[in-house]
Amino acid sequence: xxxxxxxxxxxxxxxxxxxxxxxxxxxxxxxxxxxxxxxxxxxxxxxxxxxxxxxxxxxxxxxxxxxxxxxxxxxxxxxxxxxxxxxxxxxxxxxxxxxxxxxxxxxxxxxxxxxxxxxxxxxxxxxxxxxxxxxxxxxxxxxxxxxxxxxxxxxxxxxxxxxxxxxxxxxxxxxxxxxxxxxxxxxxxxxxxxxxxxxxxxxxxxxxxxxxxxxxxxxxxxxxxxxxxxxxxxxxxxxxxxxxxxxxxxxxxxxxxxxxxxxxxxxxxxxxxxxxxxxxxxxxxxxxxxxxxxxxxxxxxxxxxxxxxxxxxxxxxxxxxxxxxxxxxxxxxxxxxxxxxxxxx
Length: 345
Known about the structure:
Elements: H1 3-14, E1 23-26, H2 34-51, E2 56-60, H3 78-89, E3 100-105, E4 111-117, E5 127-128, E6 131-136, E7 139-142, H4 145-152, H5 154-157, H6 175-188, H7 193-198, H8 201-207, E8 211-212, E9 215-216, H9 218-224, E10 239-245, E11 251-258, H10 261-271, E12 276-279, E13 290-293, H11 297-309, E14 319-323, E15 328-331, H12 341-344
Parallel strand pairs: 1-2, 10-14
Antiparallel strand pairs: 2-4, 3-4, 5-6, 6-7, 8-9, 10-11, 12-13, 14-15
């Protein structure tokens, strides 16, 4: 944001008659406790979700009651502010953190620090160090069970994958991807192979639940869309990145594949160096070695397919496949729905 934009935002916040559930002022002239900052982040993020706003604000350098701009020297270097973004991410659900931490020299010359906080994702309340926080007017407190359930129930009310893209049409889908989808669908329904072969593309896509009454869904674009059609799901992202790292952890090679994911899976799989190992099986009385793959091909494809199926595309991130000499690491955006594995156990 420009200085003018930030100044206008701060003016609008200062003109509020009082703090709200999504705006908090702190003097913080020198320091502010990291733990308190994390709690406010959780609270403001959750309240922004419940209020349906695009962001919440925590502002340092402003007196709470009078809204006088007093200035703040809190972490007065850019690296220190960026480090705080990571520190919050390390202790919140799904590594949720600030959109940005802005430094502004206000009209009176005083430095103001403006924390721009994103709303909690649909269906996922944000915790800090394992606890959920919320606001009751100006008061910071534990997030009530009612509010926790209201956020969690959002996923039952809204399914991003089934959302219809009004401006999309069959022209936005890749013909080769549709052929591949037909092949996979037929293999799963071999008893209906002749019937499936008789369907036109529109009928097939409806039957496969990739479209709804002929209308293109987000899922259809992710799995079958042309590469140039990715913009139709923006701000969501449909990308898989393969990275090869050497023993020194330095990136040696990479490739990024976009939609259609149904074809991108094969492109990513082909990049993985699934080397063959030769060994003498002591149970077989022979001098001829046996050859085995480093990884069972099915395991690679299953992990990649799961990363695609369970990605939270609303977070705008990509799927990563990182190849090391001795392992493959698959990661996607999102979080474990119950919070963490310890909580489930």
